[in-house]
Every structure is written in C-alpha cells, then in structure tokens.
Specification:
mainly beta, Immunoglobulin-like, eight-stranded mixed β-sheet, seven-stranded mixed β-sheet, 4 helices, 34 strands, disordered N terminus, binds CU-O-CU linkage, binds copper (II) ion
C-alpha cells in the first residue's frame, strides 16, 4: 500500500505526498482465456483480461403503490471477484453487488425504495479506519448507514442526510432519522443520478467499502433522440481502491496528525476499479456507444481520454479518439461538444458518445488518465491505462442512432447574465490546530453542527460564490438543486486570505472578492454548460454558481438540505454544512 504521509505547507493544505510507489508495472497482454483459478499477487495481475461487468437493472414491484415503482434493496457484506487472477474480495454492497444494481425511473412516475441495512455485520469492514477524533465530541455506533440519492429533487426527509443514519436493526438512529423508505418524485429531466451512503462522519468508509449504485431517469425528450441504448448504452463507474497483494480491501489508517491519528486528509487508491472490476475490457462493435460516466471515487479527480493503442495497420496508434459530450450531472447539454478529454471530479457525471463507426476489427482503445492527485498539483500516483475498448465484433444489423454532432438536443436555458441576484460567499479553508497546523478543512470556518446560516427562499435564484483558499480543487456539491456554473475567476489567494482573517478577527462584515480579483471571469467550458449538482472549485479561483431554489410538492416549512465538498474524507471531517430553504 502506498504511504499516505502528510505534506502540509504552513498555510495551505497541499494534500498528501507519497514517497513510495509507482503503479504496478502491469504487463499488457492479449486476451487470454484464463480458466485455471491460480491467483497471483496484485502487482502481477494481467490487465484487460476480464470483460467489463455492467450492474444489473432491477425490476420494480409496480402493484404495491399507485403510480409508483417499488423496490427493496438490502445492504450486505459479501465476497466479489474484482479480477480473475485475484482471490475474491470482501466488500459491502447494495443488492449483493458492488457497485449496486441500477434503478431505472421514468420522469413523472415515482420511485419508492426501502433501504435495508439489517444484513450488515456488527463490525465495520474497515473497522481499523474508523477515527472517533473527527466526531466533534459526539458518539456514534461503528456500523451506521443512510442512503442519499445524489442529484435528486426530493423532500428533505427522503434525501438521505448524514444525521438520518440508523444501525442494522434500527436500535440506534441519528437525530434526523425519518425511516428507511423513501419516495423519489422523478420530477426532473432525464439524467443519471447515483445513490450512495451518506452517514455522518463515516461516508468515506461506507462508500469505499462498496455502498453506491446508479439511478437513471428517462423521459420522452431523451427517447426522441434515438441515442444508443440497450447493450450499447454502458455505464462506467470509475473508482480507485487500495488492495493488499492478496486482494483484501484496505483503507489508509496512518492519520494526519496526533489530533486525528487515523483519519487521512484524502485517499488516492493505487488500483483503478471500473464497475467493480480491475482493468477490465469491453468488446465492441464498430458503431456508436453511449457511455454514462460517474466518478465514484472518494477523492480522486480523473482527466480521461480514449487513445488508440492498437490498430491492424498501426495507423493512428498513439492518437486521441475524441468523444462527444451530450450531458452533465443534471441532464442533456444544449449542444453536443466534441472533446479530447473528459475531466470528472468526485460525484460528477458525463454522458458521452463514443463513436466507433468504421473502425477496423482489431482496433484497441485504451482509457487513459493524466489527472494529478490531489488535483491539480498533488504528487500522489497518477493512475493511468484503466481499461480497454476493443473493436473485435461484427456490427449487428445497422446503427440507426444519430451522429453526435447532428443530435438535436432539447432546449435548455443557459444562464449567462445575472444582474441583481442575491449573492452568498462560501470560503473553502482549513481546520487549523495551533500546534499541528492543518488538520482538515472547513467551509466558512464552521462545523457541520453549527447553526444554519443560509436560508434561500423557494422560487428564487441566487449566486453562490465559492472562494477557494486551499491548494486543492474541491468538488462543491449542493443537495436538492441543479445549478449552472456562471464562471470562474482567479484572485489573490494570500491577499484575500489575510483580509478574511481580519474580518474574522474584528467580526467585521465579510467583503466579497472584488478587490482581490486578478484576471477575467471565464465562463465554463461548453461541456460544463449544463445542469450540474457538483462543480470543481479550483485553488485560487472564485467559482460562481447560479442556483435556482425550489422544493418538491408537498414540502412544508423550512426544508433542511446540505452542501459539501464531495471528497469524502473532507466531507466526513466537517467540510459540509446545512442550509434551509424557506417558503
Ligand atoms: Cu453525493 Cu451529499 O452527496
Ligand atoms: Cu448529493
Ligand atoms: Cu474538499
């Protein structure tokens, strides 16, 4: 396992450094039919010998509630083969699989899910990684879960928030527990959401153990586009993990400082896992595919591209094969965008078309990554060469789907000007200890359980300005809403930080970043110009979001939601805050 030691410059947390460690120099081999069950140490496994698994789509019970698809999904611990040359690995999962099964929903028809954690063991799979020093003096049972539907327009009681956890059997619950059976209205455009655990202070371990899965909403607008579907629509849930040479799942426990002797600043696994499989491959036909990408990693940002790494005549080997982005977190983009690289921060999704039309049999594309960890400046291992797509099947019938650049995507209002909208500022900074320096992160110097300070009104739109004082990029996520990125603008990080300290010291009103801006505001790249629920806040930049607030039908009174950094180690140690939507 790579060491996750601490490297912290005096003022600004830089993330983790690692002294050891190159990625395993995996040998890239041709497809082999490995029938013998001889296992090898992790560092000697072959790449691209296991077919990419695709999570099953669950069939709903449709009779139990009117106009509603009903499911019961159980969480449990089980063993799963992550690679054919490794022994089976103990993981947690929903519905007996890692990642969990996919739920498909139809816009306008509700989904109701009973999330059952009774089958989880009494001891956490990653018990040694539990660190009560991040509990802010509270006490929690080790095994506790609550499922959140990420990106969902949903009532607060059904949102699955950190304090809504319960233990297996339900003998203990968090202070804001509303049961385990939730209704999702599906009153939002077609897109891919995902469900994952969100229990207070332990989300990172529960999700890492395997508690996540996909939730796909479909609608007529999407149907009319004739996109690749069925076996030609493939989700890619991209994660990173640490495994021992024997294939046991591990999570770093070497801590940050004596203040938090176990909890680490963030983790960057040394093994890529896609749909629960290590270095898989996809056998493809020469036609269009729709890939639904999710960055399901705890903390790693990916910058992905497909590279031609093998062709029959060696033509074009080494060149990038561009893809077309057609959707973001919250739905389809207004126009398709041709892209060489797709950057995905934790929790972000990308809906892309990979066009293999006319490719000769024998063409091999490798999914590559060059994002540093911590993004963008860190020095942890860059995980590269994640999976292969091989064109080695004949096309079945004809490909009747529309070429990406000719897709007539539904209209979507892109907000580019926002005069007069109310603004709120959010400062991403550090938790500091007088003796040990940086021991974590905070938003606005507040802890999660400090009183609510943001109370937007339903039916209004606000500008949220995220000011990043750290040297890491943080994926800023807001529950309930889909927002748009207005722009990003560089500022004088030190100057503004000192001024901010002065405001705090004098309890003076906090000034906006205007006096400290050092360059023009840059609108988001076109592939980010859609509905988003998570956006990357870059170090030294102001990230401006346009956020419309509304609540689902039937929600009364102040509705409690949360916003947070989606690096799960950050979120677990209080880089997370509540807000109330007033009506
Ligand atoms: Cu992916 Cu608070 O959520
Ligand atoms: Cu969420
Ligand atoms: Cu963060």
């Amino acid at each position: 396992m790579a060491g996750v030691g601490l490297v912290v410059p005096p003022l600004l947390g830089f993330g983790c450094g690692s002294e050891e460690g190159q990625p395993p120099a995996g040998t890239i081999t041709e497809t082999q039919t490995i029938q013998e069950k001889v296992t090898r140490p992790l560092s000697q496994i072959d790449r691209y010998i296991d077919p990419l698994p695709v999570p099953d789509t669950l069939a709903p019970e449709t009779e139990r509630y009117p106009d509603t698809d009903y499911y019961e999904i159980r969480m449990s611990q089980f063993e799963q083969q992550l690679h054919s040359q490794l022994p089976r690995t103990a993981v947690w999962g929903y519905g007996g699989s890692f990642p969990g099964p996919t739920i498909e929903a139809r816009r306008g028809r509700k989904t109701r899910i009973k999330w059952i954690n009774d089958d989880l063991p009494g001891t956490h799979l990653l018990q040694q990684a539990i660190d009560p020093t991040i509990y802010q003096g509270r006490e929690y049972p080790d095994v506790r879960t609550i499922t959140h539907m990420h990106g969902c327009f949903v009532a607060p009681e059904a949102d699955g928030q950190p304090d809504a956890w319960s233990t297996p059997g339900g003998s203990q619950t968090g202070p804001r527990h509303y049961g385990n059976e939730f209704t999702y209205p599906n009153d939002q455009p077609a897109t891919m959401l995902w469900y994952h655990d969100h229990a207070m202070h332990i989300t990172r371990l529960n999700v890492y153990a395997g508690l996540s899965g996909l939730y796909i909403i479909r609608d007529e607008e999407e149907d009319n586009l004739e996109l690749p579907s069925g076996e030609y629509e493939i989700p890619l849930i991209i994660q990173d993990r640490f495994l021992t040479e024997e294939g046991l799942l591990t999570y770093p426990t070497n801590g940050t400082t004596p203040i938090h002797p176990i909890w680490v600043l963030h983790i960057f696994g040394d093994t890529p896992v896609i749909n629960g499989s290590i270095y898989p491959f996809l056998d493809a036909e020469p036609r269009r595919y729709r890939l639904r990408l999710l960055n399901g990693s705890n903390a790693r940002t990916w910058n992905l591209w497909f590279e031609k790494t093998g062709t029959p005549g060696n033509n074009g080997v080494g060149s990038v094969h561009p893809v077309s982005a057609i959707g973001t977190d919250g739905g389809l983009l207004p126009v398709p965008v041709q892209l060489e690289k797709v950057r995905l921060a934790p929790a972000e999704r990308a809906d892309i078309i990979l066009d293999l039309t006319g490719f000769e049999k024998g063409t091999v594309l490798t999914l590559r990554n060059d994002a540093r960890a911590a993004y963008p400046f860190g020095e942890e291992i860059i995980l590269d060469n994640l999976m292969q797509v091989r064109v080695n099947r004949d096309i079945k019938g004809v490909d009747n789907t529309t070429k990406a650049e000719r897709l007539n995507l539904p209209d979507m209002p892109v907000i580019t000007s926002t005069p007069g909208l109310p603004k709120r500022i959010f400062f991403l900074g550090e938790q500091n200890d007088p003796e040990y320096g940086v021991i974590g992160w905070l938003i606005n110097e507040r802890f999660f359980h400090d009183p609510v300070e943001e109370t937007p009104r339903a039916g209004t739109t606000e500008i949220w300005e995220i000011v990043n004082f750290t040297l890491d990029a943080h994926p800023f996520h807001i529950h309930l809403v889909q927002f748009q990125v207005l722009n990003r603008q560089p500022f004088d990080q030190w100057g503004y930080w000192y001024a901010y300290q002065d405001y705090l010291a004098e309890s003076a009103p906090i000034m906006g970043p205007d006096d400290f801006l050092t360059g023009p505001a840059v609108p988001p790249p076109p592939e980010e110009a859609g509905w988003k629920d998570t956006a990357l806040s870059m170090p030294g930049e102001v990230l401006r979001l346009v956020v419309p607030f509304n609540v689902p039908e039937g929600v009364e009174g102040p509705a409690r939601y949360i916003y947070h950094c989606h690096m799960l180690e950050h979120e677990d140690n209080d880089m997370m805050r509540p807000f109330d939507v007033l009506q």
